[in-house]
Amino acid sequence: MLHYAVVFFVIALIAALFGFGGIAAGAVEIAKVLFFVFIVLAAATFIYNLIKSKP
What we know:
55 residues; mainly alpha; 87% helix
């Protein structure tokens, strides 16, 4: 998930470099969403493993 966020961020940078503002803005929004989904899933997994490992 984090990999795809970085890929979309790189696409946004390249699109902005060549002057495609709309495509760059769309790619940035997709990258933001994927990054926050990654953060939520990582936190949920961390909490789940903490609860599950209690004796």
